[in-house]
Design brief:
By secondary structure, the protein is α/β, with parallel strands linked by helices. The chain has helices spanning 7-13, 30-38, 50-58, 78-86, 121-126, 128-134, 216-226, 259-271; strands spanning 20-24, 43-47, 64-71, 75-76, 89-98, 101-106, 116-120, 139-143, 157-162, 170-172, 184-192, 203-209, 231-238, 246-253, 274-281. The protein folds into 3 domains: 18-99 and 184-192, 3-Layer(aba) Sandwich (D-Maltodextrin-Binding Protein, domain 2), CATH 3.40.190.10; 101-172, Periplasmic binding protein-like II (D-Maltodextrin-Binding Protein, domain 2), CATH 3.40.190; 203-281, ACT domain (Alpha-Beta Plaits, 2-Layer Sandwich), CATH 3.30.70.260. Helix 7 (216-226) packs antiparallel against helix 8 (259-271).
Amino acid sequence: MKLYATEQERAADMPKETHKVSCLGPEGSYSQLAAEALCEGWEIVLCPSFSDAIAKLIASETDYAVLPVENSINGGVFSALDLLAEADLFGEEEYMLSIDHRLARREGVKDEDIKVICSHQQALGQCAAYLRTRFPNAMLLATASTAESLKRLDAHTAGVVGSHIKMDGVVLSEENIADNKRNFTRFLRVRKGEPSYDKRSAMVFLCAVCAHKPGELLGLLKIFQRYSLNLTRIESRPLKHSYGQYRFFIEFAGDISSERVQSALNDAAVHCAQFKLLGAYL
């Protein structure tokens, strides 16, 4: 048996625990960049879709997942938000990633050659004015991620990718082609399990479904007013299996460990037909 002079020496010699985090791939995706920033040194598991990234977390194949939840131009990333709302997951840390979109093409391909432009739906939306003006006759094709569009590049197809992409035979535009150059996407690191109410936070994120009758949403918003909580975001999303009803994604500034915030959340939960706390983070 090996003997150690100090506890610190023993600890340094122990095998390091490695966490796994799942996110949208393939290699070079914005989600991978965010996962590397939120989970430095952890093993990144790249997945073909948001749902697959969440499925790996739920199956305990990974310890965490990283998902985009909001873009400064296009608003909520609802395909990811729907997954958060429907699974027992909780966001515990956020990261704001600066987005720099470039037009990618094979070497030698000219503007007039391009008939199709592909990328993730969010990226196409964030570059809509540029693409409409520069390539008015090109078809826009949505792919699972920005990085995946690189696989489709040919003599008549261009893609919208991040400026960090480096690939032999592929040329990126010199300029950022996003309609708004100050373009950011917010990502959440999420885990399985119940919410933590004893950890300090600056922001609290939840979703709620109000009863389908007049004044119900107003009644919910008045609860936050009564507790002097500043709402920073509210977006609606139709429920898939209940026509005419909506899920509201709400974010407000507050410390989830405080009695005031916990009282507001309790009152909101009683008021709503469905209520779920999605995250609390600094």
